[in-house]
Amino acid sequence: MNSVRKVLCLLFAFVFFDVSLVLSQKKESDNQITVYVMPSLYPLDWETPASLYNSMYSCYLKTIFTPDNYLIGHLAVKIESTFLTEPLYIAMSSSDPREKVEYVFKEKIGFAILGAAMHGKLEKKEEIQHKLEKYTKRKKLAFISFRLNETATKRILDFIDVFTSKEGGRLSQSNYYGGAFWPRYYNEGAGCSAFALALLDVANILPPEADDWLIKRKIPMTLIGGRFNNNKKIKAPLIRNTKEWFNGPGKESVDYVSFQIYDPSVIYKWIHESVSNENYKRVEQNGVPGLLVDCQDIQVSPDEPILLEREVYNFFVDKHLKELEKNE
Fold it and tell me: Which of 106, 155, 235, 236 has the maximum number of C-beta atoms within 10 A of its C-beta?
């Protein structure tokens, strides 16, 4: 009888431990961030300034009558958490398309458009869901989901609060959009891809592969115009005839401007090609291909600053900060 009791006790303990483990794992995995990736509908060619201009212009002409389209691609984020009553959808975009037209066609700033600061906004949940549905139907959507621990999730939500808050009478960082910004730096806004990946960075889960998603170029100063370069007018033929990025000896902000950006199309392609990466599990969501990675064991100190000081000079960011100071 005693032996039977021991067996039953051991069995009960095993079952209880197994159930407790499953429940604790489920509680942890309730915290998750998903990055949705929408590529440009037609390829952009970053090989030379001329090829980038021509491919972007071609993409524009082919999609000019296509509704719900992001010309150069887009990233959007969904956050699911025990801290939230419902999933949070969030993405960064420019708020006034006329501003780009003014820069390019009237002021003729040329390739300064890649890093120029513009008015920005956080897209609404309904807008994001609508675009995700459209890109799903086009079969132009992919995603990466990251399972999180509670500390990492709290830092992401804290970052969003800081990024959208107003201090000292200034507009919030979320009111500024631009390709040169890194939103973890003080007083900087964000482009769509930088914002999404900064959410991963603040939680210490930005994957090392992200370096491969970066496009890095040195823009010749001859292609920078408008308020960024003595009000010079950069005309289309000049760009079309520029067959290489700056690659010789020269001085930053005099001969060239350094620029880098996370390209949604590069990330989209990487997701589709990551079939043998053991760190990711290939998954599908309503017919949309994606990757899942468990980051619950990755630790991040809750005391690490949410925002950081920029240590490397950036031409476009410097112009933006000086403009902020002038308007104070």
Answer: 155
Cα gap 328→325, rounded to integer Å: 5
Alpha-carbon distance 216 to 46, whole Å? Answer: 9
Query: What residues are paired with 147 via a beta bridge?
Result: 32, 294
Query: 10 Å Cβ neighbour count for 224?
Result: 25
In a domain? residue 16: no
Overall number of domains in the chain: 1
pLDDT digits (tens, 9 = 90+) for 206-260: 999 999 999 999 999 999 999 999 999 999 999 999 999 999 899 999 999 999 9
- Sequence letter at residue 78: K
Residue 111 lies in a domain: yes
Determine the Cα angle at 172 with ends 168 and 175, to 5°: 140
Contact 317, 310 (CB under 8 A): yes
Residue 169 burial (10 A CB sphere; 0-12, 13-18, 19+): exposed
pLDDT at 51: 98
**Assigned domain for 24 exists:** no
Q: Residue 263 is encoded by which pair of tokens?
A: 């390209």
- The rounded distance, in Å, linking the Cα atoms of 315 and 220 is 13
User: Could you list the residue range(s) of the whole structural domain that residue 146 is in?
Assistant: 30-327
Give pLDDT tens digits for 22-54. 444 444 459 999 999 999 999 999 999 999 999
Q: pTM of the full predicted structure?
A: 0.89
Where do the DSSP E strands lie in the chain?
32-38, 74-80, 88-90, 92-94, 118-122, 142-147, 176-177, 214-220, 256-262, 281-285, 288-294
**Could you write out the DSSP letters of every residue in 204-246?**
T---GGGGGGEEEEEEEGGGB-BTTTTTB---HHHHHT--S--
